[in-house]
# Entry
Amino acid sequence: MDYVPADAATVSDMRFSYWANSGQTWADLLQGCQHAESTGWDGIWVPDHFMPPPEGYGPEKDYGSPEMGAILEAWTMLAALAVAVPRIRLGAMVSGNTYRHPAVLANMAATVDHISGGRLVVGIGAGWQENEHRRYGLELGSVAERSDRFEEACEILTMLFSQDRTTFDGEYYALDEAPMEPKPLQSPLPLLIGGGGEKRTLRTAARFATEWNCWGRPEEIRHKISVLERHCDEVGRDPGAIQKSAVGVLIFTETEQEAVELQQSLGYRSGLVGTPEQLRQVVAEYAAAGVDELLVPDFAFSIADRNDNLDRFQAEVVN
# Structure
């Protein structure tokens, strides 16, 4: 019997958010975000990277010299979007913990929350992109080390957002009666943890997250949510207190066979590949799996057809 979470929702209950590719010019990215806000999307997300990976981004991954691709920095963008896009939620999907000390990130996040009038979601993950760390001299560490460091960072963020002073003595971070003012406008400031690692990441999410995100098709997300709920039981947390979101590359196809071929090539990123009829079914399956928010990236679109694809998704799939 398939696992069905207790908080399974209908499509009408879900939020739909736009994930903007940071490899655009600022003018193009801003236009897409403003279009998303004006056409009824619920949120805007931006990735946090400094360069593409060696194989490039996107389904084709054929960019010649991909590391030289232009990438806009996430938190600078979020501060600008907080003013330029004044209505909907916004956040990083997700900030690499290895890029910034958690106390620095906490101050940045509180500031952006004030600029936005209380609309920020702090998205954070353990970090993974090796070439960024190697090129910039940032410590990446083993998977276990990153997981340990990430868990400490999430605890520090939670403390700084809620306490007058924070003292922390960990293996990777130490704070000595650290103040952080002003506090975020939101209390608590939403903390989204990204990733599907079942032993560590989902346990960290169970302890600290108010939201969680993962790539994957509905059946994969359903399984991850079941693991998250087990971790919540172990740490004494109500799993219903954590909003769940999922993401998959959006590509409209003319036929179901074309969708099958693309899904096989994209693997876990293929959640939103298909005809409009197929996509309506997939969205319903995400809702039944317990997904509260579905993120729609523009990674497979050209700038010229981006808005048309976003509008088509709204018109032919959601509404």
